[in-house]
Write a structure and sequence with these properties.
The protein is 18% helix and 38% strand. The protein is an alpha+beta fold. It has one domain: Jelly Rolls. The strands form 3 sheets. Strands 7-4-9-2-1-12 form a 6-stranded mixed beta sheet, with helices on one face. Strand 1 and strand 2 form a beta hairpin. The longest helix has 20 residues. The radius of gyration is 16 Å and the shape is globular. The site of fe (ii) ion has 4 residues, from loops.
Length: 199
Amino acid sequence: MKISIKERRKQAIVAMVDRVRHCLNEEITIASIELAKVELMKLCEQQALFPREDFPVPSEGQSELFFHVYEDPIQEYSLYVYSALPGQSYRPHNHGNSWAIVAAIEGTEIHSLYRQTEYSSAAEWITDIIVEPGTAVSLLPGGIHAIQSAGDCPLLHLHFYGKSFEIQGERTEFDVRTGQACHLTLDDNDLSYIIDVIS
Ligand SMILES: [Fe+2]
């Protein structure tokens, strides 16, 4: 019997999550999340499991789409396929109390990493990491990144979190010009670009 791409993708995702659960079982540290990052990058190498027929380039006025493809029963692991036009950017932000890993199937993004300074609410730039096929970035809970897509190729990336967007808790975003931080919780309106394809 021929197994569909969707079923093969589901199996590959579940296997990846099992391996990541093992990596992060003891403690979430730089070392353990780096091991988890390698597992997400291996999934990205299986490019045939993420065809554009299932994860199209945004059209009709939309510039980005998140396809929610996996969430485990106790909401500890949540995987999205991110499809976006070139030119997307996000100002510095964290993901509440969730860790995050982003890896690329197609297209290039620059992830600028920041840390919050002790003496003010400003975010201080640390370094830039290029996320393109063969590379990835990981953030510990509370880690801060800004995103800027690069090049002309639409993005097809995997975003993997310890919790889905809805339950990541209060998120902090930083205005680098004013040095101000703002705290917000994503609600349904903010999440309207997410398409639930978990089954
Ligand atoms: Fe982010």
